[in-house]
Amino acid sequence: MMTRPAFSRLPVAVNLPLLLQALAAMGDACWQGHFNSAYHSGDWSGVALISAADAITELSPGRGQPVHRAPWTADSRWHEVLRDWPLEIVSVRLLRLGPGGCIHEHRDYDLGGSDADLRLHVPLLSPSDVDFFLDGQIIPMTAGECWFLDLARPHRVVNRSAYPRVHLVLDCRPGPWLVQQIADGLSTTPAVGIRQSDFALFQQRVEADPDLARTLQSLPDLDVFIESALALGAEQGLHFTREELRTAMRNGRQQWRKQWKT
Protein backbone atom coordinates (compact mmCIF):
# COMPACT_ATOMS: atom_id res chain seq x y z
CA MET A 1 0.00 0.00 0.00
CA MET A 2 1.34 3.41 -0.95
CA THR A 3 2.30 5.81 1.83
CA ARG A 4 1.12 9.05 0.37
CA PRO A 5 3.67 11.88 0.17
CA ALA A 6 2.58 15.50 0.47
CA PHE A 7 3.60 16.16 -3.13
CA SER A 8 5.55 14.75 -6.06
CA ARG A 9 6.46 16.15 -9.47
CA LEU A 10 5.71 13.32 -11.86
CA PRO A 11 8.35 12.40 -14.49
CA VAL A 12 5.89 12.65 -17.39
CA ALA A 13 5.90 14.73 -20.57
CA VAL A 14 3.17 17.36 -20.92
CA ASN A 15 2.28 18.84 -24.32
CA LEU A 16 1.90 22.37 -23.01
CA PRO A 17 1.56 24.11 -26.43
CA LEU A 18 -1.42 21.91 -27.34
CA LEU A 19 -3.04 22.50 -23.93
CA LEU A 20 -2.58 26.25 -24.29
CA GLN A 21 -4.20 26.15 -27.73
CA ALA A 22 -7.21 24.35 -26.25
CA LEU A 23 -7.34 26.80 -23.35
CA ALA A 24 -7.25 29.80 -25.71
CA ALA A 25 -10.22 28.38 -27.60
CA MET A 26 -12.29 28.19 -24.41
CA GLY A 27 -15.04 30.82 -24.49
CA ASP A 28 -15.71 33.11 -21.53
CA ALA A 29 -19.20 31.64 -21.16
CA CYS A 30 -17.73 28.24 -20.29
CA TRP A 31 -16.30 29.44 -16.97
CA GLN A 32 -18.43 28.95 -13.85
CA GLY A 33 -17.85 30.28 -10.34
CA HIS A 34 -16.45 27.67 -7.97
CA PHE A 35 -19.07 25.97 -5.80
CA ASN A 36 -17.08 26.60 -2.57
CA SER A 37 -17.90 30.31 -2.51
CA ALA A 38 -16.94 30.68 1.17
CA TYR A 39 -13.41 29.46 0.55
CA HIS A 40 -12.11 32.22 -1.66
CA SER A 41 -11.95 35.90 -2.47
CA GLY A 42 -11.72 37.23 -6.01
CA ASP A 43 -12.25 35.13 -9.14
CA TRP A 44 -12.03 31.39 -8.55
CA SER A 45 -13.79 29.70 -11.43
CA GLY A 46 -13.60 26.61 -13.55
CA VAL A 47 -14.66 24.57 -16.54
CA ALA A 48 -15.70 20.93 -16.12
CA LEU A 49 -14.32 18.63 -18.81
CA ILE A 50 -15.22 15.36 -17.06
CA SER A 51 -17.32 15.14 -13.91
CA ALA A 52 -19.68 12.78 -12.09
CA ALA A 53 -23.15 12.27 -13.54
CA ASP A 54 -24.74 13.00 -10.15
CA ALA A 55 -22.71 16.12 -9.34
CA ILE A 56 -24.85 19.02 -8.07
CA THR A 57 -22.96 21.32 -10.44
CA GLU A 58 -20.56 20.21 -13.15
CA LEU A 59 -17.65 21.45 -11.04
CA SER A 60 -18.83 19.70 -7.87
CA PRO A 61 -17.70 16.24 -6.75
CA GLY A 62 -20.03 13.27 -7.03
CA ARG A 63 -20.12 9.49 -6.83
CA GLY A 64 -21.73 8.74 -10.18
CA GLN A 65 -20.14 7.61 -13.40
CA PRO A 66 -17.78 10.12 -15.06
CA VAL A 67 -19.49 12.05 -17.84
CA HIS A 68 -17.67 13.77 -20.68
CA ARG A 69 -18.91 17.35 -20.66
CA ALA A 70 -19.33 19.56 -23.72
CA PRO A 71 -15.87 21.23 -23.73
CA TRP A 72 -14.21 17.79 -23.63
CA THR A 73 -16.25 16.29 -26.44
CA ALA A 74 -16.03 19.44 -28.57
CA ASP A 75 -12.21 19.72 -28.52
CA SER A 76 -10.13 16.57 -29.04
CA ARG A 77 -6.96 18.34 -27.90
CA TRP A 78 -7.83 17.73 -24.25
CA HIS A 79 -7.98 13.95 -24.49
CA GLU A 80 -5.17 13.84 -27.08
CA VAL A 81 -2.81 15.23 -24.44
CA LEU A 82 -3.88 12.62 -21.87
CA ARG A 83 -4.26 9.57 -24.11
CA ASP A 84 -0.76 8.21 -23.39
CA TRP A 85 -1.29 8.31 -19.63
CA PRO A 86 -3.02 5.06 -18.53
CA LEU A 87 -5.27 6.73 -15.98
CA GLU A 88 -8.67 5.85 -14.62
CA ILE A 89 -10.03 9.38 -14.65
CA VAL A 90 -12.81 10.42 -12.29
CA SER A 91 -12.87 14.13 -13.14
CA VAL A 92 -11.00 16.73 -15.18
CA ARG A 93 -11.43 20.45 -14.59
CA LEU A 94 -9.81 23.71 -15.51
CA LEU A 95 -9.50 25.90 -12.42
CA ARG A 96 -8.70 29.59 -12.68
CA LEU A 97 -7.65 31.97 -9.90
CA GLY A 98 -7.88 35.55 -11.10
CA PRO A 99 -5.45 38.40 -10.42
CA GLY A 100 -5.39 39.27 -6.73
CA GLY A 101 -7.48 36.20 -5.88
CA CYS A 102 -7.05 34.03 -2.80
CA ILE A 103 -8.18 30.50 -2.03
CA HIS A 104 -8.44 30.34 1.75
CA GLU A 105 -6.88 27.52 3.70
CA HIS A 106 -8.96 24.35 3.70
CA ARG A 107 -8.72 20.60 3.29
CA ASP A 108 -10.36 18.37 0.70
CA TYR A 109 -11.34 15.61 3.10
CA ASP A 110 -12.72 13.41 0.33
CA LEU A 111 -9.13 12.94 -0.87
CA GLY A 112 -8.05 11.40 2.44
CA GLY A 113 -7.76 7.67 3.05
CA SER A 114 -5.77 4.89 1.43
CA ASP A 115 -8.28 4.30 -1.38
CA ALA A 116 -9.16 7.93 -2.10
CA ASP A 117 -8.76 9.46 -5.54
CA LEU A 118 -5.38 11.01 -6.36
CA ARG A 119 -5.32 14.62 -7.54
CA LEU A 120 -2.94 15.86 -10.22
CA HIS A 121 -2.28 19.50 -11.09
CA VAL A 122 -0.92 20.52 -14.50
CA PRO A 123 -0.20 24.27 -14.46
CA LEU A 124 -1.07 25.93 -17.78
CA LEU A 125 -0.77 29.60 -16.84
CA SER A 126 1.45 30.03 -13.79
CA PRO A 127 2.62 33.58 -13.00
CA SER A 128 5.65 33.83 -10.75
CA ASP A 129 3.74 35.80 -8.11
CA VAL A 130 1.44 32.88 -7.28
CA ASP A 131 2.12 30.90 -4.10
CA PHE A 132 0.56 27.49 -3.52
CA PHE A 133 0.86 26.64 0.18
CA LEU A 134 0.57 22.96 1.11
CA ASP A 135 0.95 21.89 4.73
CA GLY A 136 3.17 24.88 5.53
CA GLN A 137 5.34 24.61 2.41
CA ILE A 138 5.26 26.57 -0.84
CA ILE A 139 5.18 24.27 -3.89
CA PRO A 140 6.93 25.86 -6.91
CA MET A 141 4.76 24.54 -9.71
CA THR A 142 5.52 25.90 -13.17
CA ALA A 143 3.66 25.64 -16.47
CA GLY A 144 3.97 22.31 -18.26
CA GLU A 145 4.72 20.21 -15.18
CA CYS A 146 2.49 17.58 -13.57
CA TRP A 147 2.26 17.40 -9.79
CA PHE A 148 0.56 15.04 -7.39
CA LEU A 149 -0.69 16.99 -4.34
CA ASP A 150 -2.19 15.48 -1.20
CA LEU A 151 -4.92 18.07 -0.76
CA ALA A 152 -6.45 16.30 2.22
CA ARG A 153 -3.72 18.33 3.96
CA PRO A 154 -4.20 22.07 4.66
CA HIS A 155 -3.60 24.17 1.56
CA ARG A 156 -4.28 27.63 0.17
CA VAL A 157 -3.32 29.75 -2.85
CA VAL A 158 -2.52 33.44 -3.25
CA ASN A 159 -2.28 35.15 -6.66
CA ARG A 160 -0.47 38.46 -6.20
CA SER A 161 0.10 38.88 -9.92
CA ALA A 162 -1.83 40.85 -12.52
CA TYR A 163 -2.58 37.69 -14.50
CA PRO A 164 -4.80 34.63 -14.01
CA ARG A 165 -3.44 31.31 -12.79
CA VAL A 166 -4.99 28.34 -14.63
CA HIS A 167 -4.41 24.66 -13.79
CA LEU A 168 -5.72 21.50 -15.41
CA VAL A 169 -6.81 19.39 -12.43
CA LEU A 170 -7.39 15.63 -12.67
CA ASP A 171 -8.85 13.29 -10.06
CA CYS A 172 -7.85 9.69 -10.76
CA ARG A 173 -8.14 6.29 -9.17
CA PRO A 174 -4.89 5.06 -7.57
CA GLY A 175 -3.89 2.60 -10.29
CA PRO A 176 -0.45 0.93 -10.54
CA TRP A 177 0.95 3.25 -13.24
CA LEU A 178 -0.01 6.42 -11.38
CA VAL A 179 1.23 5.14 -8.02
CA GLN A 180 4.57 4.27 -9.64
CA GLN A 181 4.84 7.70 -11.31
CA ILE A 182 4.28 9.40 -7.95
CA ALA A 183 6.94 7.19 -6.33
CA ASP A 184 9.40 7.83 -9.18
CA GLY A 185 8.72 11.54 -9.01
CA LEU A 186 9.82 11.78 -5.39
CA SER A 187 13.45 11.27 -6.40
CA THR A 188 13.30 14.01 -9.04
CA THR A 189 11.10 16.57 -7.28
CA PRO A 190 13.33 19.63 -6.93
CA ALA A 191 14.20 20.65 -3.40
CA VAL A 192 15.18 24.11 -4.63
CA GLY A 193 12.15 26.37 -4.61
CA ILE A 194 10.16 24.31 -2.14
CA ARG A 195 10.26 26.33 1.03
CA GLN A 196 8.36 26.77 4.23
CA SER A 197 5.90 29.62 4.47
CA ASP A 198 6.84 32.65 6.56
CA PHE A 199 4.06 31.72 8.95
CA ALA A 200 5.52 28.24 9.53
CA LEU A 201 8.98 29.74 10.04
CA PHE A 202 7.56 32.19 12.60
CA GLN A 203 5.97 29.32 14.53
CA GLN A 204 9.33 27.55 14.65
CA ARG A 205 11.13 30.67 15.83
CA VAL A 206 8.64 31.22 18.63
CA GLU A 207 9.04 27.62 19.76
CA ALA A 208 12.84 28.07 19.80
CA ASP A 209 12.94 31.53 21.40
CA PRO A 210 11.76 31.72 25.05
CA ASP A 211 11.89 35.53 25.07
CA LEU A 212 9.69 35.79 22.00
CA ALA A 213 7.31 33.22 23.47
CA ARG A 214 7.08 35.17 26.74
CA THR A 215 6.31 38.37 24.83
CA LEU A 216 3.35 36.68 23.19
CA GLN A 217 2.28 35.01 26.43
CA SER A 218 1.71 38.41 28.03
CA LEU A 219 -0.78 39.66 25.43
CA PRO A 220 -4.30 40.21 26.81
CA ASP A 221 -6.58 39.11 23.94
CA LEU A 222 -6.72 37.58 20.48
CA ASP A 223 -6.75 40.81 18.48
CA VAL A 224 -3.71 42.17 20.29
CA PHE A 225 -2.01 38.79 19.90
CA ILE A 226 -2.57 38.81 16.13
CA GLU A 227 -1.35 42.38 15.61
CA SER A 228 1.70 41.74 17.78
CA ALA A 229 2.51 38.48 16.00
CA LEU A 230 2.34 40.26 12.64
CA ALA A 231 4.65 43.01 13.86
CA LEU A 232 7.13 40.63 15.50
CA GLY A 233 7.22 38.51 12.37
CA ALA A 234 7.84 41.54 10.17
CA GLU A 235 10.76 42.56 12.40
CA GLN A 236 12.36 39.23 11.50
CA GLY A 237 11.58 39.56 7.80
CA LEU A 238 8.66 37.14 8.00
CA HIS A 239 5.44 38.34 6.42
CA PHE A 240 2.10 36.58 6.85
CA THR A 241 -1.50 37.66 7.16
CA ARG A 242 -4.20 37.99 9.79
CA GLU A 243 -6.12 35.38 7.84
CA GLU A 244 -3.30 32.85 8.28
CA LEU A 245 -3.34 33.33 12.04
CA ARG A 246 -7.12 33.17 12.30
CA THR A 247 -7.34 30.17 9.97
CA ALA A 248 -4.78 28.25 12.01
CA MET A 249 -6.89 28.79 15.11
CA ARG A 250 -10.16 27.96 13.34
CA ASN A 251 -8.63 24.69 12.18
CA GLY A 252 -7.80 23.68 15.72
CA ARG A 253 -4.12 24.47 15.55
CA GLN A 254 -4.14 27.03 18.31
CA GLN A 255 -2.06 24.58 20.34
CA TRP A 256 1.03 26.26 18.88
CA ARG A 257 -0.17 29.38 20.68
CA LYS A 258 -1.27 27.56 23.83
CA GLN A 259 2.08 25.87 24.31
CA TRP A 260 3.70 29.27 24.82
CA LYS A 261 1.42 29.82 27.80
CA THR A 262 2.54 26.70 29.66
Secondary-structure topology with pairs:
Elements: E1 7-9, H1 16-24, E2 32-33, E3 40-41, E4 44-52, E5 66-68, H2 70-74, H3 77-82, E6 89-97, E7 102-106, E8 118-125, E9 130-134, E10 137-138, E11 147-149, E12 155-159, E13 165-172, H4 176-186, E14 195-196, H5 198-208, H6 210-217, H7 222-235, H8 242-250, H9 255-258
Antiparallel strand pairs: 1-11, 2-4, 3-7, 4-5, 4-6, 6-13, 7-12, 8-11, 8-13, 9-10, 9-12, 10-14
Helix pairs in contact: 5-6
Structure description:
Strand 9 and strand 10 form a beta hairpin. The chain is globular. Strands 1, 2, 4, 5, 6, 8, 11 and 13 form an 8-stranded antiparallel sheet that branches. It has a 6-stranded antiparallel sheet with strand order 3-7-12-9-10-14. With 262 residues, it is an alpha+beta fold. The protein folds into 2 domains: 189 residues, B-lactam Antibiotic, Isopenicillin N Synthase, Chain (Jelly Rolls, Sandwich), CATH 2.60.120; 65 residues, no CATH class. The longest helix is centred in the C-terminal third of the chain and has 14 residues. Helix content is 29%, strand content 25%.
The run of helices and strands is EHEEEEHHEEEEEEEEHEHHHHH
Number of helical regions:
9
The share of residues in helices is 25-40%
Strand content: 25-35%
Radius of gyration: 20 Å
Low-pLDDT residue intervals, each spanning 5 or more residues: none
Q: What is the CATH homologous superfamily assignment of the largest domain? A: B-lactam Antibiotic, Isopenicillin N Synthase, Chain
Given the helix and strand composition, which structural class is it?
alpha+beta
Tell me the major beta sheet: 8 strands, antiparallel
CATH class of the largest domain: Mainly Beta
CATH architecture assignment of the largest domain: Sandwich
Total tally of structural domains: 2
Q: What gap, in angstroms, lies between the N and C termini? A: 40 Å
Question: What is the β-strand count?
Answer: 14
